[in-house]
Design goal:
The protein has helices spanning about 10-20, 35-45, 90-95, and strands spanning about 5, 25-30, 50-55, 60-65, 70-75, 100-105, 115-125, 130-135. The chain is α/β, with parallel strands linked by helices. It has a single domain, classed as 3-Layer(aba) Sandwich (Rossmann fold), CATH 3.40.50. Strand 4 and strand 5 (about 70-75) form a beta hairpin. The structure holds adenosine-5'-diphosphate and magnesium ion. Magnesium ion (MG) binds near residues 37, 38, 75 and 103.
């Protein structure tokens, strides 16, 4: 069920999500440009006490170090075809990460590892709100 969330609600949402996710979890983040996917990723990194870990090997993958392990953020927006995700080896990335967050997972096709949680964000009637929905 979709709920309206404001920017002020995001840290709470992120903390709840972070606490609910087992080690090795994968989260898919769907939604239009500007729907708030990256904002939620950054809030989850904050909730986890994580800081940027190292300069990325791939422009599409950013890793954060948290006390519980690596948090990987993958943004597939720039993939033109799913097979461009092959080099990213998302399955291996997810296997060694505490948490893997994937924006635009649809663009990676079957190269995106299956999600524990699939969040959909969308614009709401009021511009200062977003709708947040757990698809799975
Ligand atoms: N829950 C929210 N409520 C209101 N504004 C938000 C929310 N999440 C993000 N925004 C705002 O929307 C804009 C785009 O957010 P961003 O996270 O970059 O979107 P995306 O990654 O989905 O393209 C930013 O200016 C951000 O401050
Ligand atoms: Mg984004």
């Amino acid at each position: 069920m979709a709920r309206d969330v404001s920017l002020a609600d995001i840290d709470r949402e992120a903390l709840d999500l972070w606490r609910s996710l087992p080690s090795g979890a994968v989260v898919w983040l769907s939604g239009d440009l500007g729907a708030g996917k990256t904002t939620l990723v950054q809030a989850i990194a904050r909730a986890a006490g994580a800081t940027p870990a190292r300069s990325p090997t791939f422009a599409l993958v950013h890793e954060y170090a948290s006390p519980e392990g690596t948090i990987a953020h993958v943004d597939c927006y720039r993939l033109r075809r799913p097979d461009e995700a092959l080099d990213l080896d998302l399955a291996a990335l997810a296997a060694r990460s505490r948490l893997t967050l994937i924006e635009w997972p649809e663009r990676a096709g079957h190269f995106a590892p299956d999600p524990n949680v699939h969040v959909r964000l969308s614009h709401a009637a009021r511009p200062e709100l977003r709708q947040l929905e757990h698809v799975t």
